[in-house]
User: Which sequence fits this backbone?
C-alpha cells in the first residue's frame, strides 16, 4: 500500500483518477528523426508500464520485508520507522516550508495525517495476522466503494456482487499454514484499513487541491506525530536502537520512496484506465511476494476470492473510463 499521496498530493484511487496522466496522444503520432515510422505506442507505454509494475513489486517486497521485522521490533515499531523515516525524506526532498501556510490549514492537515497514519498502521496490523495478498485484496474494497458510491449504472451491481463474493469466500477459509479460519482480527484490521483508504481518497483530494505536492510531506509529518508515539507505546523503544535503522530505511525506501517515484513517472505517461487496471494487480503481486519472501501459501478458494475482488476493481475502472468517454 503506497501511503504517500500522488503528484497532486493524494494517493490515487486505483479506480478513480483526476486527470494526472500526461498527454500521450501527441507522442504516439510522431515519426522517428530519420523519417521512418516506428511503433510509438510501444515506445511511449513500455517504460511507464514497467515503472508501474516496478512500483507494485517494490511496495509488496517492502511490505513483506517489513513483516519479517515484526517479531523483533513489533508492528508499531516498524510503522514508526517507516512513517518517521518517510517523513524525513519527503520533507528534505519537497521542502514544504516554501509553501505559504495559514493557521486555518492546520485542522485539515491534521485530519489528513491522522487518516494516513492509521491507514498504514492498520494495514501492518492486518499483515501481521493474515497473508499479505489477502490483506491487500480486502483493503481494495475501500477505493472500490468510493468509485461505486455515486454510480447509477446497473452494471456496477455486478462489481459490487463480485467484491462481496470475494469477501465472503475469504472469511471461512483456512489461514496461513493452519487448518483454522483466517484470523478474524487480521480481516477486521484489513477492513478498517479499507475504510481509512476510502477516507484518505476523499480528504486527500481536498488537501491536494489546496496545497498540491506540499500536502505530501505535511501529511506524512502529521502521520508521524500519531504513529511514532503510538508505535512506541505499543512496541516499546526497540525501534529506536540504531541496529534497526538500516532495516527501517530499507522498508521506507521500498514501501515509500521507490514506489512513489516510479508511480509518478507512470502517471504522467499511461492512460487512466490502463493505470487503474494494472494497479488492481497489486493483490496477486503481494501474494507472490509473500510466497517468495515469507513462504506464505494460499488455498485455491483464497485465490478465487482475491481474483473476485481484483476483477471487481478492474471492471469498475473500465466502467468509469466508459462514463468519462460518454
Assistant:
Amino acid at each position: 500500500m503506497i501511503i504517500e499521496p500522488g503528484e497532486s498530493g493524494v494517493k490515487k484511487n486505483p479506480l478513480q483518477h483526476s486527470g494526472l496522466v500526461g498527454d500521450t496522444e501527441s507522442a504516439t503520432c510522431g515519426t522517428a528523426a530519420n523519417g521512418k515510422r516506428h511503433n510509438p505506442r510501444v515506445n511511449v507505454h513500455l517504460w511507464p508500464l514497467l515503472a508501474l509494475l516496478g512500483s507494485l513489486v517494490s511496495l509488496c517486497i517492502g511490505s513483506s520485508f517489513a513483516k519479517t521485522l515484526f517479531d523483533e521490533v513489533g508492528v508499531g515499531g516498524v510503522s514508526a520507522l517507516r512513517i518517521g523515516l518517510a517523513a524525513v525524506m519527503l520533507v528534505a526532498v519537497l521542502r514544504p516550508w516554501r509553501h505559504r501556510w495559514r493557521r486555518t490549514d492546520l485542522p485539515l492537515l491534521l485530519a489528513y495525517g491522522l487518516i494516513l497514519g492509521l491507514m498504514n498502521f492498520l494495514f501492518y496490523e492486518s499483515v501481521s495476522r493474515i497473508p499479505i495478498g489477502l490483506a491487500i485484496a480486502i483493503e481494495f474494497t475501500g477505493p472500490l466503494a468510493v468509485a461505486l458510491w455515486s454510480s447509477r449504472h446497473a452494471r456496477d451491481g455486478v462489481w459490487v456482487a463480485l467484491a462481496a463474493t470475494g469477501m465472503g469466500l475469504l472469511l471461512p477459509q483456512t489461514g496461513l499454514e493452519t487448518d483454522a479460519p483466517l484470523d478474524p482480527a487480521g480481516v477486521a484490521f484489513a477492513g478498517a484499513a479499507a475504510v481509512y483508504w476510502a477516507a484518505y481518497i476523499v480528504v486527500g483530494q481536498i488537501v491536494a487541491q489546496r496545497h498540491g505536492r506540499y500536502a505530501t510531506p505535511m501529511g506524512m509529518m502529521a502521520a508521524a506525530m500519531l504513529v511514532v508515539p503510538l508505535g512506541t507505546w505499543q512496541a516499546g523503544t526497540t525501534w529506536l536502537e540504531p541496529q534497526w535503522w538500516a532495516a527501517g530505511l530499507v522498508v521506507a525506501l521500498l514501501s515509500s520512496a521507490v514506489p512513489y517515484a516510479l508511480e509518478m513517472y507512470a502517471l504522467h505517461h499511461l492512460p487512466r484506465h490502463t493505470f487503474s487496471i494494472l494497479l488492481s494487480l497489486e493483490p496477486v503481486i503481494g501474494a507472490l511476494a509473500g510466497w517468495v519472501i515469507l513462504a506464505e501459501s494460499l488455498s485455491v478458494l483464497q485465490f478465487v476470492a482475491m481474483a473476485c475482488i481484483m476483477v471487481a476493481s478492474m471492471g469498475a475502472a473500465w466502467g468509469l473510463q466508459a462514463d468519462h468517454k460518454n
Notes: Residues 162 and 311 are 8 Å apart (CA to CA). Residues 26-325 form one domain. The chain is about 70% helix and 0% strand. Residues 1-10, 15-36, 38-43 have pLDDT under 50 and may be disordered.
